[in-house]
Amino acid sequence: MGRKWNNIKEKKASKDANTSNVYNKFAREIYVVAKQGEPDPESNQALRVVLERAKTYNVPRTIIERAIEKAKGGSEENYDELRYEGFGSNGSMVIVDALTNNVNRTASEVRAAFGKNGGNMGVNGSVAYMFDATAVIGLEGKTADEVLEVLMEADVDVRDILEEDEAVIVYAEPDQFHTVQEAFKNTGVTEFTVAELTMLPQNELKLPADAQEQFEKMIDALEELEDVQQVYHNVDFGE
């Protein structure tokens, strides 16, 4: 994989905290998935995934409970799940996932964020085929060999296991998200540094300094949009 997931996650988590957007985004996502299925994570796997992600971003329990109670209360507030695909300079690619109650507004804002920062939106399918849906689970306190041993004993197949910074990152098929977590929870692990269902690029791209600066501004503009939940791209921001 070669993906420095920890560095990217820390950068995003820090930026989201500074804009005070992350809690609102999680509240909306929790409400939507709780309303679509049972408002109980034990019987709603999609909700369990969101709650595990929220835990790694330190989302307050009060915000989580409020969103679930809102879903239980039969709120008539509805959101559409949308995916936009687009391009930056030098062959850079971007996927934007959104939850919105106003499709026209969101499409206009996403298009503007691309256009004002040297990018442009593409048609559905123009970018997504170059990314793989992936479960990413990270934990500390174990070596890659120890992680492999745990997974082998639990008879869990994964794509890759990498030591990245001070953590071990497991890359697996999306439907193995809970299986991988349970294998570690059964050994006493209670905290995960990363718990994501994401879209990872099949190949990463290094941009020249000026192009990278503009690309980062575009990503920032997209992530700051209220309706945007996730932004994925194929640019390597590493040194």
TrEMBL record:
Residues covered by the TACO1/YebC-like second and third domain: 79-235
A single GO cellular-component term on record: cytosol
Keywords attached to this entry: Cytoplasm, DNA-binding, Transcription, Transcription regulation
GO biological process: regulation of DNA-templated transcription
Record-annotated TACO1/YebC-like N-terminal domain positions: 3-74
An MF annotation (GO) of this entry: DNA binding
Superkingdom field: Bacteria
Subcellular location: Cytoplasm
Family: Belongs to the TACO1 family. YeeN subfamily.
NCBIfam families reported in the protein's UniProt record: PRK00110.1, PRK12378.1, YebC/PmpR family DNA-binding transcriptional regulator
Name assigned to this protein: Probable transcriptional regulatory protein KP78_17980
Species whose genome carries this gene: Jeotgalibacillus soli
